[in-house]
Structure formats: structure tokens, C-alpha cells
Amino acid sequence: MPDGRTAGSARAFELLEPLVRAATVRVHAPPGGYENPGNDGTGPTWGSGFFIAPGWVLTCAHVVGEGGAAVRLTGREVGITFFSGPSAGGAGTTGTVAGRVECVLPDRLEERRPGRRALWDLPDLALVRVLSPVSHACVWLTDRARPRLDDAAYFGCTEELGIREITGRTTRLRGTAGNGAAIRLGDDDEIEAGMSGGPVVDLARGEVVGVVKARRSAGGGGLAVSVSQLRTLPLPANGQTGLYRRVMQAHDLYHYDRHHSDLDSRRTWTDVHDELPDAEADRFGGRGRLTPGERTTLCGLLAELPPPGSSEAVRELAEQARGEEPDTGLPAPLSWRDGLGLLHDPPGTGGEAAAMLRYATDVSVADHREPPSPGADEELWDWVRVTAERLWRPLRRELGERHDQGLAARERRRRARAGQAVHGPARRSGGLPPGPSVLLEVWAHGWEDVYDWRVSVLAGPARPGRVTPVAAGVRATPAALPDALRAPLAEGFRRCDTHEAPALLEVAVAPELFGLPVDTWTVAGGVPLGVQRPVVLRHPAGPDDTPAAARRWARVQAGPLLDQRADCARGRPRSPSPQWLAGLFDNTVPVLCRTPDADPTLGALHSVHDAGYGVAVCRRPPGDPGASCAPFHRGLREELADAGRGAVLPLRLQALRARAHGADPDAYWAAGTALVWQDPARALPEDEPLQGDL
Known about the structure:
Largest sheet: 7 strands, antiparallel
Shape: globular
Number of helices: 17
Radius of gyration: 28 Å
Mean pLDDT: 86
Structural class: alpha+beta
Distance between the termini: 81 Å
Strand content: 15-25%
Strand order of the largest sheet: 8-7-11-12-13-10-9
Helix content: 25-40%
Low-confidence stretches: 1-5, 34-40, 85-92, 420-429, 690-694
């Protein structure tokens, strides 16, 4: 009969295994690359890795260095294969995508690498950027800099019985090595070569604490690298410290969005944390620790804020909340989340929950290097106040006083800095070029899946109403439309582009065609149109000429901008009423996140136009119907706030597309985003082309 600890660990493994397997990947040569001499599309397995945030895979440096000792690691392309459960066909592979090594630790591995079968220098980590937006699961990373020595499990790619799959095995953490950079795994563990780079999971707390590094040459057991070593990324001189903060922010927002989503019923890490056997008794009767849902929400709210100005700022707030100096021998805390890891097992009364709420209160009134997203600091404080309701009344009073005192102190500091440039970098002053633009008009053939089209040049505000035809066509299928338009669009751009800037492309289509992916088409150079130039959508009826429409257009151009969800409420579809739309502020930009060619979004697009909103945002949703729209709305809210005024939105959206095309995971939320731009100074032709022969 197993003892209680063993039984609890077995149950924890059963709960956590599906989540870890879903986020663990196989690392190999890039598909079709010169490093892949095999004929299976991927070649032999180099090792394993796992998703720590959308678009980011963590593995070992020696894994991405496999088979290429003379090749520079940073910038090297690798292949990433996802796995599902075993299928009748064997491995259950779900897909392969290319990735690029963004950095390795330590960076001296670029110049000096060990010989074959020798241990690579600690921490032996590599961060890989996925080169296309894909839907995938992510692990939950620990915020502790030192792991607790307890039961654990490790995962990685194995090829037992000739089948490639992600395998998990249990172990026990035996201690640390390398000044805490490495974790010793149990002596009886069987670690296969392909498992290097896979995750090590603390079964008691349901969090990834390490990365499998090596097995002992003379028997079982091995070493893992502590995930806290990610904090040792190079200093800001080459931008890598910012990379750590970006990745951890994306990690926390991923889990926050999954926890709060109403669309996806799949079990999340937060759900499983709530079901894990209680490894540590709460001596405060359930009030000494935050619940898993509260913890996930707190991490997400902290991730909404700008990063701390320094590691010392995090340490100072953690010390004030903890009541004693935290361990100073650990890797420096670089994010607000890292500060939570300094608050476990605090002295005195109240436990971790009280310490973390004090810390969150202080963060909500802290000075930030740049202005936070609108309302982010207030939202954090509101959450603290509500969460404290289930704790002790003296603590609630203490937190309220702490918040008031922090606000007053922050205001005094701001007044003392009066006259300094505290509002961040200056915004781009220019908007769209005032010259001519290229107009693409597309009409659907009713019940037939073919289109008529026309390409013209609009002279622009200097000569309103002047339209110069370029070319027209009829009855093009959706698949043939990009090829049919390549030459006409190229001619239009040749007429309008200048040495200073590429011309605007205006796409005038009925709202049911707002999902037409014109921004992804290529005309020249292999670069999508939306990356080469600003691309906007136009309603074929043109802008509304009512006083309300003119007033709203002027207010949006001047700013500041307010975003408003028009076709969903926390992910659930809704239809906006004309009265509701009429009551919004004139500087509002309606945002639509669902499929444009189906209700309620199709009707909402018509209603938004009829209400006189000349600027709106819609998108082509991702293929996964369970994907949360929260990252899209959050990213757009920040973009609108930073833009400040509508005049620069077409150029800012172009910049976002360029970032996504350059494989920046922080811009993947903008995939499929389209800007509706009803500029009254750019009149559209009133006639439609003749239909083709009947």
C-alpha cells in the first residue's frame, strides 16, 4: 500500500500529465532544410522542448546545437513538432513549425562549446521563437527561484517501440548543484537521450521548475536546469533582459485569458491546481494562501503593467510586504511576477495571501517607467480590495490605508519631477501621405462564389472626386483573385508610390467581404501588401454625411481614442442596438472580433456604419473556435491608447503587421486585423462595373 505522499503524487501526475504533454515538443532539423538528409520531413530527434508562452519554446542549448558544432546557435532555424495522444497511425503528430533560436545561455557557448558527449556549461538553455502564429498549449512556470525538494515528473520525446511520443516519468528532486543553477534528479530515473530539453514538474505545486539537461553516464538519475536561470539573460545593452520580461508577461496573460475565457471548456492549469492534493496544510484555515484562481488573476493583472524599473525596486516592495529581507542570493527578480516568488512562507501573521496582497497594493501605486495601460493600475487595486474581503478585517483596513498613502506619495514624487519628460517617447507626428491612393473594389456575384473587381487611382484630398481607372475584371474565383489582381495593383502602386512613402491601398467591399485577406496577398518582392504599405477597408456606400458622422470623424482624428467591443461581451457574441451605438462617446473606435460575414458581426458592421462611425476595427478570427479574443482586445486597447489619435492608425497597423511578419510573438494577436477607414476627403466612385455575360 503506497504511503500518503506517494498516493498524492500519483494523483497529481494523473492530473498534470495531459497538460504537460500538450505543451511539450520534439526538436529536430527544420523541415526540408539542408541539415535534414532523411526523407521523413523532419529527420532524427535532437531533443525536446516546451512552450512557456505563445510563440516561445524553452529547451537546452545543446539540443539546438545538435549536429551543427560549427554553426552559430543564435539565429539558427530548427523544427518544432507538436504531439497529441497516440493514434492508430502511430505517433499522433499534430503539426510541425519552424523556429529560430533567439538566444542561448550562457552566451559564451557561441565561441566555446564542449566536445561530443561532454556536458555543456550551465545554464545550458536556449529560447526559440516560433516563426508563424500557431495555436498551442503552454506550461505553468514556477515563480520560485529555488525548487522545493519533493516529488516531481519529467517529460520528453522518446522512441520506444519505434513510436515517437511524449513520455512522462516520476522522480524526486534530490538537491541542487552549480550554485542553484542545476537540480539533481533521483538516482533511479531512466532518462533517454531525446528527453533533453523537456520540462521537470513539481507534482506538489503543479508548476514547471526545471529543464532536463543530462543523465549520469554510469547509471540512473541526472540533472535539470532551474527555470529561474532565464533571469540571467544578458543585460539591457543588447535587449535580452527586456526579452525575459516580454516572455513572462505573455506567459501570465496566456494563463489569465484561459482561466477567464467563457469559450473553452478544456481543463486549464488553474483548474488542475485547484484539484491537486494539498501538499502543505494552511495554518490560517484557508486564508493563508491565495486560491489558484486568485493567483492566476493576480499574475495576469501584474502582467498588464509596465515592467519594473529595476530589480531592486521589486526586492524593496517584496521586503516591505514580507516583513523581512528576502533571500538575496537568488537570481535577480526582473518582473513583478518574480516578486511573488519572494513572498512564500513569510514570517508573522497572515501568511502568503496577506503578503501578496500588500505587494500588489504597493505595485498598483508604484512609479512606472512608462504610463500603464488605461486603468490597469486601478484594476489591480480593485482586485486587491475585492479579494481581501474574504480575509481578516484588520488586513482590509491596512490595505486601504496603504493604498491611500501610496497614492499620496506617488503624487508628491510626480510634482517634484514637474517639468521633466515623464510621458515617454514622442508619438509619430505624421499620418497618411496626402497624395493619391490605390482603390480596389470587389463585388460578389450574389449566390455564386465568384467576384467582379476594379482597380483605380484616387487623386486624394487635393483633387477630391477624381478617379483614374487602371483595370477591371469579372467572375474571378476566390483562389484566382490574388493572381488576377497582382499586375493591376502593381500598376496602381507604380502610379502612386513616392520615394518618401508607399501609397495607401483602400479596399472597398461590402461588409460581408471584410474578411477578404487582401493584406496577406503579395504583389512584388514576396512581402505581403499589409507589410509593404497601409491597407484599409472602405464601406462601398462611402462615409455617412450626417453631422454626427462628421463630428465623430473629427473627434477620432484628434483623439484620444476609446475602444469599445461591439459584437462580443467577454467572448460571447452580442448585437449592438442603434441606441447603444448612438450613446457612445464621439471618440470611440468600435471593435469587432468575430467573423465579418456572419451575424451578429455582419449586422453590427452595418449598424456601426449607419451610426456614423467612420473608424472601426474588425478581424479574421483564428481557426481555433475556442481561442480567447482577450489578447486581441487587450493588444488593440494598448495600441489605441499609445496611438493617441486616429490619424496614425493606418500606419500603426502596418507596423504591427510588419512585426508579426518578422516573427514577433508580441504582435501575433494582430493577425487578421483590419481597419475600417471612411475618410470623407477620399470620395469613392458611385457606379459599379458591368456584370459579366449571363
